[in-house]
Amino acid sequence: MNKKSPTEVVTDFIHAWAESWDSLLQSFKDTLADDCVYANSGLPTWQGKELILQTLEQIHLQVGLERIVADQLTIVAEGCRVVVERKEQWFDTNSDAIFEEQEGVLGLFEVKNSKIVGFRDYFDPRGMLALMDNA
Question: pTM of the predicted model, to two decimals?
């Protein structure tokens, strides 16, 4: 089996979010390094895969997140770093849209040994914060 490039690791990770909650969660379990750092602009930074998974579970329960469809607009890679410009739409269990990132997201991923060790998203957090407040 050939080792995946950092770009393949990241794009496979993001594609898995669109299938189902189980697929989304499994992609985080399989792809994040145990000591991964996940930072979102305007939100707390989550350190460690276990905390990241717990936080995702909380979001799932709070707003009914089932899957995320991410349209990958631009992908740029240099060494172990991959930058993905994307637009996201979040869906609940009824496939109703519950959130759409209007301005887009710029994600910077750092990949080592086919695992994501750093994951930083840059976006306007106001829409996500409103979704969480209204849940």
Answer: 0.89
